[in-house]
Design goal:
Elements (H helix, E strand, L loop, with lengths): L10 H4 L6 H16 L5 E6 L4 E6 L8 E5 L10 E5 L4 E5 L2 H15 L1
Antiparallel strand pairs: 1-2, 2-3, 3-4, 4-5
InterPro entries: DUF2794
Protein name: DUF2794 domain-containing protein
Organism: Roseivivax lentus
């Protein structure tokens, strides 16, 4: 019996970064409040090899207003969570997702 397969499994290429359920609950809680306020209308989630990205849209045809990113490689440096604006500027970065999301909650206070 031959142990070689035509498509060998290479785990380092198939692993992706994902948001955990607790992280998604935090993000979707904020998202729901912003949708109720009429500020946001759509979202997209990307799971890449080095990052998980939650993109927030005002309309689905636009580029994202904000991106909430999780980059585990930055865990020991600036923090693995960040909020990035439409222009690519990092609005907040840190180790605690709740603290990072506060930069967007301030926008909710202004919207109401």
């Amino acid at each position: 019996m031959n142990s070689l397969t035509p498509f060998p499994h290479r785990p380092e290429q198939t692993e992706t970064v994902m948001f955990h359920r607790i992280e998604l609950n935090e993000i979707l809680s904020l998202y729901g409040r912003m949708v109720a306020a009429g500020e946001w209308r759509d979202y997209g989630i990307s799971a890449l090899r080095d990052a998980a990205i939650f993109s927030i849209f005002r309309r689905s045809a636009e580029q994202p207003l904000y991106r909430i990113e999780k980059r585990p490689k930055l865990r020991n440096k600036q923090g693995m969570y960040s909020v990035v604006g439409m222009d690519g500027q990092i609005l907040k970065r840190g180790h605690d997702l709740k603290a990072v999301l506060r930069v967007l909650e301030r926008k909710l206070i202004r919207a109401i």
